Amino acid sequence: MFMLVARRLALAPLTLLLVSFVCFVVLRVTGNPVDIYLDINRTPEQVAALTERLHLDKPLIVQYLIYLRDVAQGNFGDSLQYGGPAIDAVATAIVPTIKLLLVALSLAVVLGVVGGFVAAVYRDRLPDFALSSLAVTGQSMPSFWLGILLIQFFALKLQWLPTSGSGDWRHIILPAITLATILLPNFLLVTRSAMIDVMNEQFIVTARAKGLSNLRILVRHLFPNALNPILSFLGIQVGTLIAGSVITESIFAWPGLGRLIVSAVFHRDAPVVLAAIFFTSLTIVFASLIVDILQGIVDPRIRR
To answer: How many CB atoms lie within 10 A of CB 145?
Structure first.
């Protein structure tokens, strides 16, 4: 287990370096930052001074190394929109995003795993057909369209929930449901498939032959052995969930990191974009590390 964690931690800086380098290059080659910082009334002296301050007179690789030096000191640059450090804007937005992700992920995992268990236990019967059909329908439904429908029905027609923004617990319900539906159908189908695979194993047949109750077989034998594929899928889909939050937060005006990235891209606020993507990548890397640790706890083969 220690070697597994050590390998993952050793690869984490390389992943972050690669992501930051690609984003830095893309933002540099798609526009001159001087044209963004200064208006049309700029003077040649202002252009020259800002070019020197942003190190734009140096080769691109040297600019990136200077950027890495500043990041190591906690300096991601100043935001164009907010007039302060970019890290402050990201720090303000990351808490609502984490809150939304935790609620949506909890809904997707709990409902998906329970639904997958029910579909597997009642395989080829009405509950299995109904749940599998709902899962396929959910996979085919765009999240932005579902979000608009939820606003139309629950917020505008029934007036049970607010349409957008943040505040009390009611504001998070609609965006969390919208975001959860991105993963929930997949969790249901993956759990169903994993359960059915384990049901056909010889040790399950032996457990039934010993006269063990269905509940004990489910809890002691089926669930632990079907958990590994579910955890593997969870590790892969964390990035998908974060990417989905960009659309969801924009629809519901949720003041999170996804909405901040969209606003920063439209305003060409490169420091905020780089800082937000850096912390998003960091979240995905450590979420994958946690999943790997959980897999090692569940499956002794991974620990060895």
So the answer is: 11
Domains of the chain and any CATH numbers: 95-270 (1.10.3720.10)
CA–CA gap between residue 63 and residue 24 (Å, rounded): 9
Find all residues with CB under 8 Å of 46, minimum gap 6, and list them: 38
DSSP string, 221-285: IIHHHHHHHHHHHHHHHHHHHHHHHHHHHHHTT--SHHHHHHHHHHTT-HHHHHHHHHHHHHHHH
- Backbone angles phi and psi of 78, in degrees to 5: -100, 140
pTM > 0.90: yes or no: no
- SS3 assignment, position 78: strand
Handedness of CA 105, 108, 111, 116 (dihedral sign): negative
Write down the residue that tokens 């498939």 correspond to: 193
Q: What distance in Å separates the CA atoms of residue 219 and residue 223, rounded to the nearest whole number? A: 6
Q: Please, where are the H alpha helices in the chain?
A: 2-29, 33-37, 44-53, 60-72, 86-121, 126-140, 143-150, 173-199, 202-209, 214-216, 223-251, 257-266, 270-298, 300-303
Name residues whose C-beta falls within 8 Å of residue 21's C-beta, 6 or more positions apart in sequence.
64
Give the whole-angstrom CA distance, residue 74 versus residue 54: 17
For 168-222, the pLDDT digits (tens) are: 788 888 888 888 888 888 888 888 888 888 877 777 777 777 777 777 777 777 7
- The C-alpha R_g of the chain, in whole angstroms, comes to 24
With beta carbons less than 8 A apart as the criterion, state whether 133 and 287 touch.
no
- Answer whether 302's CB lies under 8 Å from 295's CB: yes
